[in-house]
Amino acid sequence: MATEIVTVDPPVIRAAGGIILRATPRGDEVLIVLRKSDKEWVLPKGPVKDAESFQDAALREVEQETGCSCQVGNYLGTISYAEHGIPKVVMFWKMTVVQHRSLPESDEVQEAAWATLPVAIQQLSQPQEKALLSRLGGSSMKPAPAPIEDPVPSPTSVAPSIASPAATATAPAPIAMPRPVSRKRASIEDERVRARLLREAEAFRVELSFLQQRSGLGDRSWANAAQDQLDNVMRCLETNDIEGGLVCLNAAHRFGVYGLQPTELFTRAEILREEADKISSWRGAAIEKLLSVPDEQLTADRIADAMKLRDEESTNQHYRTRLAGDFLRILLIVCSVAVLGILPLLLLTGKSRAIGPVLLFGLLGSSFSAAHSLMRGKNDSMIPNMFVMLTPVLFGPLAGLAAFGIHEYLSGVFNFSYTHWGAMLTMAFLFGMLVQRVLARLAGGKRRKKARA
Q: Is residue 106 part of a domain?
């Protein structure tokens, strides 16, 4: 039976803004504004009014907050966050100043100032605006190739596909919010990711509506596919399937690429190239190879394939991080049980009384080595296995016995008059570390060779 979907009205606060640039001898500068209410530096932006296009709203708000009449350029991206508990979506366009006037009197803006990109990124108060400006700093801030499209609209006119009554009357469809249902209990971290995932899905739904309106009446199969994936995100959130929701949202973003214009594809390619530089696995090299073509040969297919590789890398890292956390918890439980088993040996007398401590320190050494490898992500298996991880740890206590044997041998040779506890327990700890590391490397050796081939 189909699950009932409950809609919320209004589903989201829609807003628009501009990233205003000018070239100077010091490099590109961007215009930022200081709010009176909270004394925060932000990019100029504001809400979209009824029957108003996003571009019109961006131009109006920029002029109200900076005094600058601007010309709208490329669409740069979207950010989303919650405002008083209501999701808010802000779409940004690149802008250039046509006429500069003094800052008008305002109850909202105290100051508008030009700053170089590094200074502006540091000065901005909102993390998402910092991230947006950082991503665009090395790509869209460069002069864009001549677009293969209609001329950029002037401040007094916008493209009919966006601002016409037919277009503006088609407001973004109400966002299907997941109805509260019986879900498996989630951790605090999962709830935070779930809230962020919901906001991002809502933001992209608004962006997708804009891309659909701009594309006109041509082939919209890409938009339908993206919409289906956004619906899948909501279904995943109903059952708290966070990873499934992330996969579906990434897929929706990839379908959305087919609604971008050529200059926007160039910008997206530059951002992907920069992200590929931070990926150390084979996927980073594959992304660079996909995008190492002249700009005129960049297609939506290439961009989508590169995004898929990046998303797979992100999903893989997310999975391994969560798995490492699960393994650390299991390791703690197993070690606690092992310690309880060793404790009775501490009651032994005579020479045998050293057996319990060396077993304990050997276990501590192997556990420390395993935990260190997990936290650094140094797992030799392509897909970490719990038994492969635990088995070398359990050999740690046996390695600790070697320290006891060495101490007893040296005691017989040099006639020690007392037990050298510090040296013996240190050896037990180090032997436990060494055995765990060697066995883990042997267990993962074959897979590592295959990956290299």
A: yes
In a domain, 21, yes or no: yes
3-state secondary structure of 169: helix
**3-class state of residue 239 by DSSP:** coil
Residue in this structure with the two tokens 């001329």, named with its chain if needed:
151
Residues 6+ apart with CB under 8 A from 276: 283, 284, 285, 287, 288, 291, 306, 310
Cα–Cα distances in Å, from 205 out to 138, 179, 220, 408? Answer: 27, 18, 15, 72
The residues, any chain, with a CB within 8 Å of residue 162's CB and separated by 6 or more, are: 53, 54, 55, 168, 210, 213, 214
Q: Which tokens go with 237?
A: 């959130």
Identify whether the C-beta of residue 236 lies closer than 8 Å to the C-beta of residue 248.
yes
Backbone torsions φ then ψ of 109, nearest 5 degrees: -110, 130
Going by C-beta distance under 8 Å and a sequence separation of 6 or more, which residues neighbour residue 268?
257, 260, 303
Is the pTM higher than 0.85? no
How many separate domains does the chain show?
2
Expressed as residue numbers, the domain containing 405 is 326-452
- The tens digit of pLDDT for each residue in 92-150 reads 988 999 888 887 777 788 888 898 888 888 888 888 888 788 776 544 444 444 333 33
Task: Tell me whether strands 6-7 and 41-42 are parallel, antiparallel or unpaired.
Answer: unpaired
DSSP 377-442: T--SSSS--HHHHHHHHHTHHHHHHHHHHHHHHHHHHHT-SS--HHHHHHHHHHHHHHHHHHHHHH
Residue 318 CB contacts under 8 Å (≥ 6 apart), including other chains: 243, 246
Tens of pLDDT, residues 251-286 = 899 998 888 888 888 888 888 888 888 888 888 888
Q: Is residue 270 part of a domain?
A: no
CB of 317 closer than 8 Å to CB of 294: no
Q: Which residues pair with 20 in a beta bridge?
A: 95
Which pair of structure tokens corresponds to residue 154?
């002037």
Residue 42, strand partner residues = 33
Rounded-to-integer distance, Cα 275 and Cα 284, Å: 8
